[in-house]
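hi support,

uploading two proteins for the ticket. first:
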Amino acid sequence: MTIEWRPYQTEIIESVFEDWQTHNSVLAVAATGAGKTNILWGIVERFIGETPCARIVVLAHRKELIEQPLARLGQFWPHLVNRAGIVMADQNECHRQIIIATVQTLGSKSGKRITELLRYGKIDLLIIDETHHCAAAQYRTVINKLKECNAGLKLLGVTATPERGDKKSLAEIFEKESANVGVLRLIDEGHLCEPRVHGVKTNIDLSGVSVQGSGGSRDYNQQELVAAVETEDCFKLVVKTHIEKINHRPTIAFVPSVKGAYRLAEMLQAQGIRAKAADGATPKAEREAVINDFKAGRITCICNVALWTEGLDLPNLECCHLVRPTKSDALYLQMVGRVLRTYPGKEFAEIFDYQPLGSRNLEQRMIKLGLKRRKPSQFAGAGVGGGMTDKPLHKAGDHVEYVLLDYFGKRKEAWQATPDGWRIISLGKGEDSIDRSLAVSPDGAQLWAIWRKEGDRWNQAKLYLQGDFDAVKAKTEEFVSKYGQGAIVRSNAYWRNRPPSESQIAFGQKLRVYQSGMNAGKLSDAINEKLIMQAIKRAQQTGTVAPVAKAPIPVMTRIEIMDGAALDRLLDNVGELSF
């Protein structure tokens, strides 16, 4: 089988060999889905072509990352298969020209395997897969041992997530970043799906969860995180989101604990979702059966902790539940990367990021996904870097949508959702005889005021506030408190379950929203929806959509408010609504 190279793949290979002319150690960054394994073997084939007797080691940290590259070698480079061998646990093919090894075996304290490996000759090229792990001591041991036997050792790191680990930068190991192909370029060229990030508001409180480690290894305390996140309410929200937004589309869920993975799978199963969980202790045959069932459509949601953050090739995955808050950008990209691959009929990768109380991480995650301008690479500041880089990034908010399920679902007021995702509420008629309503746009970034004075034929609508959902939410709560008529706004008001009056039915029939069997509450909601959305549409068509007040931030970004006083100042600047 002949491989069809993508343009950026050949560019990476060329860039690596060009930089090896002046540097011994280089880094190639390519987002998940870029075909790093193919790039790796393309470099190996060319290296051997230029130096036929060269010996090469490909180093990884997991069994799956050993087996999969070997299978790919047999698929596209069968002429190299007989030269390749594995050094891992009981497998010990140290004599081969191409050695695929685990770092645990070659970097063991005994040093027996690496000593045996070097008895057959020096190593000319070391390739480290998933290089973001290589600040660990075992990787350093392997690198140093190989350099002792060959000062001219060529070193290549391949990763999708070049992050710091244990305060030791990758720049300490690699002299130059030869290539950096990010998510955005792969999306623009059609090699990855466009991600849609949904920030699902939750009641998760991480204020009492400590943070451990440093650098790229810095993350939440595992035990404390489990206690904070894996609550009945949180998992119910995941199930609710799944049913309302995903249903039977292929999905992967990441949670903090193994117990939580199985629990979430059971809760999904109880609602008719074909879900299954697995973990590192699950026998290999059983894990393979889960994957095969998923590919065949017998399972539509797989739940795990970190079993499938790397080495999983299921391009039909469409959706991802991130129920695992993390400080690690590398882990975040690994989880999200599972759903970015293209597949026939798949238009978007849907990412449901369950946001803890007060979280401001979503903007940073947008940067990591290539959806917002990011800071320069750590290599650029050091005067090393250069090489091939990604295309300019989109402006903030291009692909981000806030899911407001949690906030509106927990309100006591009679908020209703339209088929298009708007959230609307009737506040009732005040003592001034003005009938008022509110509407929040599907992305949570716009607050619309709708009103009708006594004697007016039509409702009027005005875009009142445009900005961050937190600001929209605060002003919404203020208006509901100030103008809401108790019997009208309460979702449990007694009148809602009564039969509709004859005049209400007649009005509903006139608007063509009445359906037989509707109670007074359902019919009232249908009438309000029709009138409110008509008013908004008229305002949009006439161009009268300039907001009365505008939060000092772009749409779809998050306000960085550090204290209550800052929020008060912001709301003071918003002003008062003149109905």
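and the second one:
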Amino acid sequence: MVQGQRKSANKPDVKTIKNEIEKILKQGGAPDQAKLEKLAKQYAIQQTVSEPKKESLYKTKINRTQVSRASLTGKKLTGYIEKLLGRLEPKMDPETVQIVNKIEQRSDTNSNIMSQLSYYLYLIESEDAALLLGGRTILKDPLNDLATNNFAAMLTSCGAAPQAIPILRGLIPQNQKNAMVLNNLGQAFASVGMRDSAMFYFNKCLMLEPKHAMANKTAAKLSADAGNKTQAIEQAKKSLEGEITLEALELIDELDSSPDKFEFLAHEKNIPDYFNLYKFKKPSLQRKHTDAEVVRAEQNAFLTEIDRMIEQLNILIDEETKISLIKSQERVQRTQAEAIEYGRISDKLFSPMNEMAAKIYASKYINRDIFDELQKIEKTYTSEIEYRRQSYANDLNSIMVQYAEKKKAYNCDAMDGSGCKMLEKLTLEECEAKNKRLDVFLDACATAAERYEQRQLQLARERFFFHSKWGYMMGHDPHRANANHYHAAKDYLLSIRKVVGYAPEQPFCKQLKELLKTYRFEDIIKPYCPINNQFDIGAMSLKINCTESTLTIKLDHFIEAAELGKLSKKAAFWLDGMKLQFKSDHVKRNTTISVIKTWLEQSVEVPKMLTPIRWKAGAKVEVSTTAYITIDGRGQIADGGLKGTAMTTAWSGVDSDVTGAMNQIEAGVEMGLGFNSGAFVSPKGMLAELFTGLGT
């Protein structure tokens, strides 16, 4: 039940014990199990397990006749207990005895509750009360083996191992398969220096529970004391598999001088699958060209959630670090004051466990080997994707060349439309061939990504398991420990963020297929339009054709109509050549609003003598910069940005001073950068017709 003998500097007074017990009795008589567990962790105690005091280590010479060979049960046991209590009770504080009497007098207090209360008293360091109540529990119910075991374990921990041995011997015949009882008897023998007897019972215990922490740890101490360092180290490691204790760690640190002596702690088995434990949903890997939108949505949702959690952890890390810093400063100030006043320092900033955890935290496997492997698998994954992409690009080029050759024999000029039908068929076949090759590429990428992500998640969970555990134990106060744990969690999230997968690939000809639902193929690639006119009315210009309508308002026209003296030179400069334009694209169903600044505009007209009466013709070169925003058919912003345009226009039509109808042709190039469309360079007018590929 008890681990080691403890210092009693912080023992509670009788009044505190009385209040605690009365509170428990009012709540039903049994101590709260959660509180028992918390106290057990606080005092490094394991229920039903005893361990000898370190200072008595096994070299202590005792008179073996002091250790009874008796095996006590029944009346012999109760008589023996009565004698022990008879020596104990007169030495106790009368008020403490009254507390025990009150517990025992409760009519509903059975032996199990009494045993638990005895354990509770031990945990709060009221050993005398714990032993008195534990002994009376046996007198009340001599057949309660658990209560008997606990009482004997407390005797061993309190330095009375010779008195505990005959009690534990009496339990052995009925508990040959009980590792708890076997361990406690081994601990009692170890306390009195009877190494062989101790190892006999430890071995029996370890045959039942090979990872029994206490049995392995004390066996390791006995082996080290006997000069068997190798066996002692192995036993200490086994002890740590059952429970992390400072004593086992210190034993390994003392016996093993190698730099990697704690590396075994970095190779834990049965590490939790945190990814599924915390219900992360990994985005699907795109294997088909039809899955692009679904995969993109899953990737965005995954990254958004991960980034949200990282931001929360950053806040927690900052808060805990600030509190820890304040607490540390307060401790340093108290320590300085104590040193000045008393000439001593009782409070160390770092505990022995903090220092031991720091040694373990510097694991080569976790901090160097895993890091190197993460870089290696990422490089391998990236190289494989790049190789697959290059092969895919080469095959796409071959498909395009193949179908370009097939399309040479056809055009849309035939009256019966047969040429256009063949072009449509070949274009759709080309799209299908490209999409099939895309699926092969995506499937290969998915297979490579699965291998990468599986290893990435495994290494990430190993690092998190190790860093969260030892980083927490390295914290010199609870807030620093919490900050270290949150740091480990943040690193884990940054690692699993990489399993988002590769960028989705859009299917070929998706837009074309959508347009074919509404338009004919020949209308898409070379739309027929009987309307192509421009009307100029003062400062406004309206251009209309079958694909788009454009209204342009020349702002510099208003400068001429205003008194120039009322405008600054800077305002006049910027208004000069400035236009406001509204363009409606009838095919794409969107509207673009633009502010255009013309930097160069040169026109040349054919002399009137060379043209019929009231007829004019000419050409114009224009270089401009445009700020624009595009709104789609649903009223949402589709794009926006800046672009530069160089255009050449030729025109002819009826001459008029106020209004007229003109026919014109345009050719030029446009380049720009949009927040959605990205960087682009595109031909305009006749150049667009010449360079637009079919089905691409």
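thanks. also noticed: DSSP finds 24 helices and nine strands in the chain.
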